[in-house]
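Severity: low
Component: inverse-folding endpoint
Summary: output formatting inconsistent between runs
Steps to reproduce: submit the following structure tokens with default settings.
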């Protein structure tokens, strides 16, 4: 039979065990509460990130469509001004390996609509003009704005004489419209004649001779 002292000691031990286990239980409950709160916060963060990602995708798609429209419009106007009013320039954007990929096409509207790649459309002249118009487009829509002249090296090298006058008029209008100086290297006398200031460079032996041209 236990004495009163032994009984008190046993009760004290049980109380100590109870207090210890209760402390562990309280700690576990607090940890569960903390983790539940953290999970809730993470869920909210994930929700915000998903919505932000959707917003960024839509913003990116909108910006891409706006840029696409501006480029198509300028290049189409260029082609119609120089070659044929029935020509259009189109950009088709597809996803390839998780990244946007752009394909360029020239569309000729007539009795039959013909859609071709630029390199398959009427020879090199079309490529020259599309390349010229794309350079102008990228320069104008770039953000931040790019200042300074437009520098061109033989911009209409493969364009036939039939359309050279149109090219020169287009360049003059672009310069005035966008208030941008054009510095051009060309062997074409007609393109050279539209310049406000022109120089002829000739090679004399191993020496380059520069002469001002009076237009």
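Observed output (run 2 of 3):
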């Amino acid at each position: 039979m236990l004495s009163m002292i032994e009984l008190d000691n046993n009760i004290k031990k049980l109380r100590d065990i109870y207090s210890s286990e209760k402390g562990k239980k309280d700690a576990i409950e607090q940890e569960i509460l903390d983790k539940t709160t953290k999970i809730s916060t993470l869920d909210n963060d994930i929700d915000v990130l998903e919505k932000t990602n959707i917003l960024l995708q839509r913003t990116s798609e909108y910006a891409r469509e706006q840029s696409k429209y501006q480029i198509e419009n300028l290049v189409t106007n260029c082609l119609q001004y120089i070659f044929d009013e029935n020509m259009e320039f189109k950009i088709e954007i597809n996803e390839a390996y998780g990244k946007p990929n752009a394909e360029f096409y020239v569309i000729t509207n007539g009795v039959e609509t013909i859609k071709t790649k630029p390199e398959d459309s009427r020879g090199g002249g079309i490529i020259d003009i599309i390349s010229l118009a794309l350079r102008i487009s990228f320069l104008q829509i770039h953000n931040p704005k790019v200042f300074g002249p437009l520098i061109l090296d033989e911009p209409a090298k493969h364009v036939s004489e039939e359309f050279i006058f149109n090219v020169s008029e287009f360049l003059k209008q672009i310069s005035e419209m966008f208030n941008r100086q054009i510095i051009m290297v060309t062997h074409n006398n007609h393109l050279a004649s539209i310049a406000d200031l022109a120089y002829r460079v000739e090679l004399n032996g191993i020496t380059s001779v520069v002469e001002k041209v009076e237009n």
